[in-house]
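hiii, so i know i said id send this last week but things got crazy w the move. better late than never?? heres the sequnce for the chain we talked about at the cafe, plus the structure i predicted for it. fair warning i was half asleep when i ran it
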Amino acid sequence: MAQYFQIHPDNPQQRLIRRSVEIIREGGVIVYPTDSSYALGCQMDNKTGLDRIRRIRQLGEDHNFTLVCRDLSQISTFAKINNEAFRLIKSLTPGPFTFILKATRETPRRLQHSKRKTIGIRLPDNPITLALVAELNEPLFSSTLILPGDNDAMTDPEDIRDRLEKEVDLIIDAGNVAYAPTTIIGFIEDTPEIVRQGSGVVSSLQ
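okay and structure toks below
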């Protein structure tokens, strides 16, 4: 049965952030808010947690997973960033963007796209997310909370509790979080390209 923490969306209680990270480090799968939706998360090297998230979402091997990072320095450990990518990411983050980049050797192979060897990277503009990754001191493995058969991410923490309290270890309630898909920017060939236009606007790539 999942634990249920009500965390203030603008001023997260540090005690609850610390306890949330303890659950992550103990191998837990959590539901937490970002700036674009609720998401599922676990520690990056938690293979069992990754498998649980795959099962909850019924995802295949070709799905692009995401690492939620603390800052640009942390991104460069897990993804290959040229000067153009660095400048663009710096100008757009934190914000509602997902960047698809070539993974470095530091990124566990099971998190990479099976064929392209890429990884999604996010720096969300959300106080709870930023507090979690700061306390964790490593990227948080993440996947948008879109359940099988649904087109949009879940928005109401009470509904999430009803459907997932036996599937996850912690649900963080930060109130309703409207689903606003991120803009996905790919750097597969080093040149930035909008893969999916979402809520984030990049005037230089229009």
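btw The chain has one domain: 3-199. thought thatd interest u
miss u guys!!
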